[in-house]
Amino acid sequence: MGRDKATLELPNGLTMLESARESLRALCDSVVTVGNRIRCDLKDANVGVGPLRGLLAALEHATSLGLESVLFRPVDVPLVRSNDVRELSEAQPEARVLWARSGDHEAP
Question: Please, what is the end-to-end C-alpha distance for the chain in angstroms?
Fold first, then answer.
């Protein structure tokens, strides 16, 4: 591809990053982006390690603020809407971890 997926423009005119942030604003008190490239609130210090280190950075940030919960949403899944996430969380309100499944593919 040759460029950061977060900067790709979607048919609605938003970039993938902007779309991801917008889908979370309706559900979350604050939205924080983690990465090692453009316009990220938290830097992923371990470039090349993959998304796991970014998840850890977000959890450390949430813990430092005393937050009760964290919602992760990858930037490169543009069809996830805030209603999808709301329905998932309302279906299992007591669950500590939720993830989506589509056929044989699971996405925590």
Answer: 25
Q: Is the distance from CB of 85 to CB of 23 less than 8 angstroms?
A: yes
42: β partners: 34
Give the whole-angstrom CA distance, residue 6 versus residue 89: 25
The two structure tokens encoding residue 70: 């964290």
Three-class secondary structure of residue 105 per DSSP = strand
Which 8-state DSSP code applies to residue 40?
A: -
From 75, 23, 65, select the one nearest 44 (Cα to Cα): 75
Estimate to the nearest angstrom the gap between the alpha carbon of 29 and the chain centroid.
14
**Which pTM was predicted?**
0.75
| pLDDT tens track for 31-50 | 988 877 667 787 776 666 67
